[in-house]
Amino acid sequence: MDKKQKMSAIQKAAVLLISLGPDTASKIYKQLTEKEVEKLTMEISSLRNVTAEKKDKVVGEFHQIALAQKYITQGGLDYAKVVLEKAFGYEEATKMLKRLNASLQVRPFDFAKRADAGQILHFIQNEHPQTIALVLSYLDPEKAGQILSELPTDTQADIARRIAVMDGTSPDVIREVEEILKRKLSATVTDDYSQSGGIESIVQVLQGVDRATEKTILDTLGIQDPGLAEDIRERMFVFEDIVILDNLSIQRVIRECDSDDLMLALRVASDEVKETIFKNMSTRMAVTLQEEIELMGPVRLREIEEAQSNIVAIIRRLEDAGEIILARGGDEIIV
């Protein structure tokens, strides 16, 4: 690698992984997407003669970024700037924060992480539903779910819908809302922005509310926008989530399942899902099912998805009937 040539971000990542060694690198790989792993692997394989000096430089830069991020997490950008300036001087601290801003995004309303749900609720409950939806879409899903649960019942579905259909929001609008809430909470905030809202956002929020609130919101949405409500329901629980059920609930679901659906659904399931299913049936039934899956010929993906959807529908029906319980962030613990 030419010493004078400026390294790209992917090259730096590849050098860092090489420097960390195979054990640590493999752990990092597990946190990446398949596409990211592919890009990094190709880059690593193309590297030649990386000098110790180059490795030290990349590791040092990574350490500085991690250090700056640590201070931001503890007290925001202003706090990080003060600490880094005292430790490394103004010039070096400025460089570190610039590198951090180039590699990391600090979400709007990040300051709200230090406020509890009750405080935020107090300040936003009388705002316009669109403003409330904007704030909730940026909060931690569990905290957003707690706040949504405490809002008036007649506004919950409207706010949930607004989060689900939210697309890009003007940075000026975000900044204005952010500054108002920031003043009320007397906290610090960054000017970096990222995308918020969408179906996945409201799904995460609803997974943090209690079952009663979720049902009220989805039932109301079902009247206002049936297609959206069904889309949200489908994403609230997917086949792979079956592992979160307790053993008795899984056994109850298995009794309701068509054997062909079960066989097809497990064809491409993860090892964790297969193990969870097999351990909740008799040894003989588990062995037979495993053999049938192994002997199964080519199957269309559409058929597998349909079988998994049928099983998810059974789980939903049993939950609605109160025969099984899906653990949710806002639910009380049942013993």
From TrEMBL:
Q: Which domain of life is it from?
A: Bacteria
What's in the GO CC field? bacterial-type flagellum basal body; plasma membrane
Segments forming domain Flagellar motor switch protein FliG C-terminal: 220-326
Q: Which residues form the Flagellar motor switch protein FliG N-terminal domain?
A: 6-109
**GO BP of this protein:** bacterial-type flagellum-dependent cell motility; chemotaxis
**Any GO molecular function:** cytoskeletal motor activity
UniProt domain Flagellar motor switch protein FliG middle: residue ranges: 118-190
Q: Which SUPFAM superfamilies match?
A: FliG
> Keyword annotations for this protein?
Bacterial flagellum, Cell membrane, Cell projection, Chemotaxis, Cilium, Flagellar rotation, Flagellum, Membrane
Question: Any idea where this protein resides?
Answer: Bacterial flagellum basal body; Cell membrane
Instruction: Tell me what topology the record assigns in the membrane.
Output: Peripheral membrane protein
Q: What Pfam families does the annotation carry?
A: FliG_C, FliG_M, FliG_N
- Say yes or no: keyword Membrane present: yes
In the record, the note on similarity to other proteins reads: Belongs to the FliG family.
NCBIfam families (alphabetical): fliG (TIGR00207)
- Name-wise, this protein is Flagellar motor switch protein FliG
